[in-house]
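Progress report, Aim 2. The chain analyzed during this reporting quarter is listed below.
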Amino acid sequence: MTIKDFATFKTMEGTTLPPGDWITVTQEMINSFADATKDFQWIHVDVERANKESPFGAPIAHGFMSVSLLSKMIEEAIMIEEAKMGVNYGLNKVRFPHPVLVNSELRLIVTIAKIEEYKTQGYKVTWDCTVEINGKDKPACVGEFLTLLF
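Predicted structure tokens for the chain:
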């Protein structure tokens, strides 16, 4: 969805955007996330051990990997042409109700919960986010994601 300007965007408070595209979480992505965060817990990166010993029967993605995908998923859901840049501002009430097994498909359901003026040059946006897992009743991640748009 492309929005021309902030004036139009501000009228969208409370709007749920169309679901995003599915993103497949591969073992390569999980390993790269482990490299970046230095979190090498075996349940994520040791495929053989996870297949044998994990209660999930396969490697799972880091919970924070789901959170880290929010920026990309929101960027793909909506673009505001007038915006020059956006930055992450924080998170509220984040939970990980269901593990993300390797090769799961994720997509974002997002509502523009609140749009507030930020200082004199931007907006603070609260996004209500649910990261769905294809074929699962429970989501991978739920929470409020806050961004600043300028």
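The first helix runs from residue 6 to 10. Residues 9 and 108 are 19 Å apart (CA to CA). These observations will guide the mutagenesis work planned for the next reporting period.
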